[in-house]
Write a structure and sequence with these properties.
Layout: H1 24-44, H2 50-61, H3 67-74, H4 78-90, E1 94-98, E2 106-110, H5 112-133, H6 138-156
Helix pairs in contact: 1-5, 2-3, 2-5, 3-4
Length: 157
């Protein structure tokens, strides 16, 4: 199909191979990219990034993680987590304490300021979650969550 500029018109998300005829892997990547961009735009209003939000979320769920453990659960590189940790610590959102047994290992926890920032970020993230789940019954949402989690677990092996 020609485009107005004389070339081939690119399919929009949801069309052709970018739609129901596409490969699972591509469609997952396309959905993740759209979701991440939407979240990044919303978090920018708070001066936060999506990776910072993930780190804050994981520290709330699992206080005392090391930088290496944070990188694993946040699906980020150790180098990226190192930069995020430095910035969040500088801003007073997290604090470090030495591990009680392995003193050279630093454990990270949220501060009051970090909890406040996380709650603000969560409001934006929950708005995105509602958009993602719109039109799906609670049972369908549970099925999709189970399927996505199973993919991650199965492909990890």
């Amino acid at each position: 199909m020609p485009s107005p500029r004389g070339g081939v018109r690119l399919p929009l998300p949801g069309e052709g191979k970018r739609g129901e005829h596409g490969y699972f892997g591509y469609l997952l990547r396309q959905a993740a990219a759209a979701s991440r961009l939407t979240l990044e735009r919303a978090l920018a209003e708070l001066g936060a990034t999506a990776p910072q939000f993930v780190v804050l979320t994981m520290l709330k769920a699992y206080p005392g993680l090391s930088g290496a453990d944070l990188a694993r659960v946040a699906l980020l590189t150790p180098q990226t987590v190192g930069v995020i940790i430095r910035n969040l610590e500088r801003d007073g959102a997290i604090r470090k304490t030495p591990h009680p047994v392995h003193g050279r290992v630093l454990q990270w926890t949220l501060t009051r300021r970090g909890l406040t920032l996380l709650e603000k970020c969560r409001k934006h993230a929950m708005a995105l979650e509602r958009r993602l789940g719109a039109g799906l019954s609670p049972q369908a949402q549970a099925t999709v969550r189970h399927w996505l989690a199973r993919i991650a677990a199965d492909l990890q092996q």
